[in-house]
Amino acid sequence: MSTGPAGHVARSTVRPYSETSGATGGGAPVRTFLRTADGVRIDSVYEPGTVPHGSPRASSHGPGGPGDPVFVIAHGFTGDADRPHVRRVARAFARYGAVVTFSFRGHGASGGRSTVGDREVLDLAAAVAWARELGHARVATVGFSMGGSVVLRHAALSRDAGAEAGADAGVDAVVSVSAPARWFYRGTAPMRRLHWLVTRPSGRLVGRYGLRTRIHHRQWDPVPLSPVEAVPRIAPTPLLIVHGDSDGYFPLDHPRTLARAAGEHGDLWVEPGMGHAENAAPEELLHRIGDWVVARAG
Asked: pTM score, two decimals?
């Protein structure tokens, strides 16, 4: 069930977002459904950011203005826009710019079924397009685990599409946290459990009713571009690869493989003592990522 870059996106059912404490002079948060190129409704939230007045990070347009970057956050498998760990990441990045969070297909209030990193690239494309349409000139994608693989593929496919059209259709910076380098990895117990969850009918029932994640029953056909194949095609867009040295899902050969594929255009941070994805990312790391994006996103 593979696919190429996404097209235009339509919105519907704009509704207020309940977590309003992050709103400042840049306007109130907005929650809406985006429609992907293949017709899936994606639950999405925009927050204008809380960049402090007087901060060297502050835009001349005020908090959340078009001069600030917008962080589009791609969560991990079984996450969604309302999960506490995703909200914590959003609050941290809101001090550096506006934030878009969304639930991948099959997760939370979004429609469709999860394809575990394949068609999810269309969900991210819809969120990035929305951020652009809201007036932000600089867009950074930050993905965790499955979302980390999606931001890599999205950046590569968007750059390919832009080259074909004679224009830059990509993003301004990419951060991939706790991502795999290759598909079908079963070298750790958590990944063997995940493959059972995805490939077996009983596993998909556990995913639906135990983890609130609806998983598609079809296998990939064709197999999508792998993260390590995508990475060289992202250049010259700034790329940051982050991985914990205590990650229980993907050992350190994954980020090192991605970093070798990136060459000189990618940065690699191996974080001592860090586990896997959003839940394991300490606040200090999130702020370092925010500083990196502000410095690299133009």
From this structure: 0.87
